[in-house]
């Protein structure tokens, strides 16, 4: 099937590539079907709504940029995503891309967790954590 996207124009996606977010995303409860689309020559992917072309989020796998990043999923999330092992999931965080790019931030307080095999996803809001919604991706860089 073809979908219109925010960053890639019209792309062909397979039905089996669609990730279901049963409860939508915070602020987008009615958006339940997404695909992951890689950005060429960048370590980022786009979480693109299948149904709303203008809705696409830039994501990264956080562990390369934040090596000490860790959290535990609550039991309800483990059940919702049918997780049996840590190996079942991929973890991403949403970026707020800034100009200059050195000021780009990552939302570590609300990771996007995807069960790759079952094609289920959820954005998890972490509570009782020091993580915030805006962590500098490049904290050592000084803007010029």
Which CATH architecture?
Roll
Large-scale geometry: globular
CATH class: Mainly Beta
* Count of distinct structural domains: 1
Helical proportion?
A: under 10%
Proportion of strand residues: 25-35%
Report the span from N to C terminus.
44 Å
Q: Main beta sheet: strand number and arrangement?
A: 9 strands, antiparallel
Name the average pLDDT. Answer: 94
- Give the uncertain stretches in residue-range form: none
**From the alpha-carbon coordinates, what is the Rg to the nearest angstrom?**
15 Å
CATH topology: BH3618-like
Helix tally?
Answer: 1
Which labels suit this protein?
single chain, 144 residues, mainly beta, BH3618-like, 11 strands, 31% strand
Provide an overview of this structure.
This protein has 144 residues and is mainly β. The strands form 2 sheets. Strands 3, 4, 5, 6, 7, 8, 9, 10 and 11 form a 9-stranded antiparallel beta sheet that branches. It is built from 1 helix and 11 strands, in the order ββββββαβββββ. 4% of the residues lie in helices and 31% in strands.
């Amino acid at each position: 099937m073809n979908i219109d996207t925010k960053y890639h124009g019209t792309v062909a996606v397979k039905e089996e590539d669609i990730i279901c977010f049963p409860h939508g995303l915070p602020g987008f409860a009615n958006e339940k079907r997404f695909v992951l689309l890689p950005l060429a020559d960048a370590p980022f992917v786009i979480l693109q709504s299948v149904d709303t072309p203008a809705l696409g989020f830039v994501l990264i796998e956080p562990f390369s940029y934040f090596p000490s990043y860790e959290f535990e999923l609550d039991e309800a999330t483990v059940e919702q995503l049918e997780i049996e092992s840590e190996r079942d999931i991929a973890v991403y965080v949403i970026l707020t891309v800034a100009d200059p790019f050195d000021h780009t931030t990552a939302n570590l307080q609300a990771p996007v967790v995807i069960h790759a095999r079952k094609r289920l996803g959820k954005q998890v809001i972490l509570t009782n954590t020091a993580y915030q919604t805006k962590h500098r991706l490049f904290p050592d860089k000084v803007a010029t």
